[in-house]
Amino acid sequence: MTSILEQNSIGQIPLDQRHGRPGGLFFVWFGANMFLITVVTGGLGTTVFGLSFWATMAALVIGLVAGGLFMALHAAQGPALGVPQMIQSRGQFGSRGATVIVAVVIFMYMGWFASNAVVGGQALHSLLPGIPLAAAIILLTLTNIVVAIIGYRMLHLVMRLGTIILGGGFLIALILTMTSGKVSVAGLQSGDFTIAGFMSVLSISALWAVAYAPYVSDYSRYLPPDTGPIRALWATYAGIVIGSLLPMTLGALIGTVISGDDVVGGLLDVIGPFGVLLMWCAVLFSGLSNALNLYGASLCSITFIQTFSEKFIPRAKGRAAVAAALGLIAIVIGVAGAGNFLDFLVSLIGLMFFVITPWTAINLVDYYLVKHGNYQVSEFFKKDGGIYGKWNQSAAIVYVVGLLVQIPFLASALYTGPVAGAMSGVDISWIVGLLVTCPLYYFLSKASESRSGPRVSLTNTAMSPDSVEGADVR
Q1: Domain 22-349 carries which CATH code?
Q2: What is the DSSP secondary-structure string of 151-193?
Q3: Most buried residue, 1, 39, 418, 463, by most Cβ within 10 Å?
């Protein structure tokens, strides 16, 4: 069985293992959104926030278009550097500094994984009531563990299948809903428009895309280093925007014809027998594709450990052990939080936006405007951080400032800042975070370069087939 497993983990991908075309990224990021939880998220505007369908759609489109651009800009980093996204962050934050971000991203991965497992488990339980909810969650999680262990190629295949099968299924469900006779012009227009509700939906949809930023290079790092960055960007951008908007539109539409917030139950009532087939496809796909989160969490966990143990760059067996351990933890989280997952989801989205926004700004400004894609990849794996050091003071300062400036503008179930409160709950924290973080990091980095002298030209040359990772191979 070992032969079908991905042999790499966080080490730079050798040249002789580079393969694929940038167009394949469209299927990855379209398929990555073929979840029932995406439908539920789209329904938040018309259910939880009480907006009309049209106001919800406007907010969803604006948010996805804006957030998707920031997310897609990371796509070029994978082919150029050949390493996972969080390893590359050491080039901005230093080896120890990056662990702070890595720890946050691990939490994010596990939160998304558990949320998807709960939604999938609930769907399986509704199809087969004889299976307890906890057992359904466990069953799907065990399947995800197997897929995550097999690794990169399996995940690309699963996402392609999800794009075709569930993408088609959600499109048919959307058409059936619109022609069901339950959707009316009055229903589409009903709702109370509020700036707070509109901005909340816009922010949620923008974060939906931005939250994938820590994933992006993980699924493009096997592409040849001469892959055109523009093609990689547009394939990723189209996948995340279109793939998110389709199920979210379905959720928003269902929200106009139901009372309460049970979007999945409402979907089944509206589209009839096809809903059962769609539900089975969604459940089976959830049992495969949620491994995307577990795979990312595994890479990040290995990255965290390798920071303090230089030679720890495991291959198939070590990565499998990490994935299995994280999967078991996710089972506990999912089963324990199944009762109030919707509140958890909204809180998780708000928290992730808060911590991911300044990171993505620093990462992109450094890659495109400061270092122009030139990094010494071998230095990422040194315990002392190599030429990037253990801590990058400029990045640390800007990241903290990026967090602090958002606090007054936050509006969430956990905390509402004074400015957001004065604005009737309108959350523009992420916009403020980007506007402050991007120029501040650029100018501090340039000032640091001026003080330390000209930067030595770096290379991001991929390893040759004969190179050795110098790793503790497991």
Answers
A1: 1.10.4160.10
A2: -HHHHHHHHHHHHHHHHHHHHHHHHHHHTSS---HHHHH-S--
A3: 39
